[in-house]
Amino acid sequence: MSKPVVAIVGRPNVGKSTLFNALAGGMISIVKDTPGVTRDRIYADVSWLDREFTLVDTGGIEPESKDIILSQMREQAQIAIDTADVILFLTDVRQGLVDADSKVADMLRRSAKPVLLVVNKVDSFEKYMPDVYEFYNLGIGEPLPVSSASRLGLGDMLDEVIKYFPKGEESEEEDERPRVAIIGKPNVGKSSIINKLLGEQRVIVSDIAGTTRDAIDTDIVYNGKEYVFIDTAGLRRKSKIKEELERYSIIRAVSAVERADVVLMVIDAVEGVTEQDAKIAGIAHERGKGIIIVVNKWDAIEKNDKTMREYENEVRRVLSFMPYAEIMYVSAHTGQRLIKLYDMIDMVIANQTMRVATGVLNEIMTEAVAMQQPPSDKGKRLKLYYITQVSVKPPTFVIFVNDKELMHFSYTRYLENKIREAFGFCGTSLKFFIRERK
Ligand code: GDP
Ligand code: GDP
User: Fold this and answer.
1) Which ligand is closest to the CA of 193, given by its number?
2) Which of 39, 163, 301, 359 has the greatest CB tally within 10 Å of its CB?
């Protein structure tokens, strides 16, 4: 299910990262072997009441000079407008209203995105409330006082945030068309791939605006079937600062991945696979989306009979956390193998939504246990009672055991491999929950 995206925007030092940490603290789902997820916290999963959303912090590095603060804030605001369902505009009661706040408020107001004006550092309502009223002058509604440092007012703020989320029945879930996000570093060929695919279809249906976003999704018909390509390449504004550019491309990827069924992770064959690719791919992995690794610009490298093998080894090494993803070697320039992407997309979606009968799963588990004894600790041995699939997208299994502590990651991995041997599940991660039953 696709989760709404909430973005925090605000001047340096108003407390964006403090708010981010306060909301994400303890709720961040950390996939230990995914690169980048723990290191820089650009995005996190947050849940409030029965709603879940992805929180992103648009603020990156400290600007070196005062005059670039405004331009940087504008870029952050634009990213938020492009990618978020709800924007938290954070201000600071201690510094009061400053000119840059008003300028950014103007920009946000024009965007038609829901914006919540949050006034931070209200550590004492008694003392600071009179100063909060000044923020009405921004003209973006009622200021919500919070203290991120002492976690005051956050619940009321979250109540407001979730009011703007689409209700279940209004969401894009109804849409049966496969939704495909093309992600990857700048210049790997994302737009070229979309353009080539567009060029090869007979009928161009229409460019439809995303129902919840300003981003333009591209509808492509292949073999009489419609696919929606979610554009992340759209951003042509280039930040001069490398760290900012990377941050923004991650935020864009997060938002596109969130809305997609299948993700095409594009890598530049000429440049080779890099750590930055791993970070971006990690987003799709962690979100449990279907993934196809697309090595583009295959026309531009010198090849011999070993090239593909060597490439595969390198991709598998750097993206070792997603061995289940298929790799395709394509060229947006010549069109080589691009058409095959559609079959692959269909297959990955089928795997994402595949359900395995409980009886069959338990047979596999029993056989697996017989072949390799479960781990034990201090004389107590792990017993596996029962396995069942509880959901899809990604396929998710619950295993009932005698003692959770005894269920090592490596044994879960072993069972996962057995399930994959039987059913493939190519292109999708599998999730396992371990429950105790005495
Ligand atoms: P960012 O640059 O917007 O990400 O701001 P930070 O989160 O780094 O916070 C800037 C400074 O404000 C830090 O020294 C924080 O400790 C402080 N700060 C953040 N939130 C609060 C708050 O609610 N109350 C007070 N008194 N200080 C805060
Ligand atoms: P994006 O930033 O990921 O959308 O990348 P673009 O689609 O703008 O492509 C970046 C550059 O790579 C452009 O100069 C393209 O012409 C080039 N490019 C894209 N695909 C291919 C390809 O398959 N082969 C070669 N040789 N160049 C490509």
Assistant:
1) 2
2) 301
Q: Between β-strands 5-10 and 326-329, what pairing exists: parallel, antiparallel or unpaired?
A: unpaired
- Tell me the pLDDT of the chain (438 aa) as tens digits: 578 999 999 988 899 989 998 998 754 444 444 554 444 578 888 989 889 999 999 886 666 677 778 888 888 888 888 889 999 999 999 999 999 899 999 999 998 899 999 999 999 988 999 999 999 999 999 999 999 999 999 999 999 999 999 876 555 556 788 999 999 988 899 988 988 988 866 444 444 433 333 346 788 889 889 999 986 654 445 556 667 777 887 888 888 999 899 999 999 999 999 998 998 999 999 889 999 999 999 999 999 999 999 999 999 999 999 999 999 999 999 999 999 999 999 999 999 999 999 999 999 999 999 999 999 999 999 999 999 999 999 999 999 999 999 999 999 999 999 999 999 999 999 999 999 986
Give the number of the atom of ligand 2 that is nearest the alpha carbon of residue 331: 23
* 111: Cα within 13 Å, side-chain hemisphere: 27
Please give the full DSSP string across 361-395, using - where no structure is assigned.
HHHHHHHHHHHSPPPEETTEE--EEEEEEEETTTT
> What ligand is nearest to the CA atom of residue 124?
1
Task: Judge whether 187 is annotated as a binding position.
Answer: yes
Residue 228 annotated as binding site: no
Provide the b/e sequence for 140-172 (b: ≥16 CB within 10 Å): beebbbbbbeeebbbeebbebbbeebeeeeeeb
By alpha-carbon position, which residue is closest to atom 19 of ligand 2? 189
CB 423 within 8 A of CB 395: no
Give which of 236, 235, 248, 233 is closest to 197, Cα–Cα: 233
Ligand 2 test: best mutation among 187, 216, 337, 338, most atoms within 8 Å of CB?
Answer: 187
Distance (Å) from CA 249 to ligand 2 centroid:
17
Maximum distance among all Cα pairs of the chain, rounded to whole angstroms: 74
Cα separation, 27 vs 24, whole angstroms: 5
In this structure, what token pair is assigned to residue 378?
């201090």
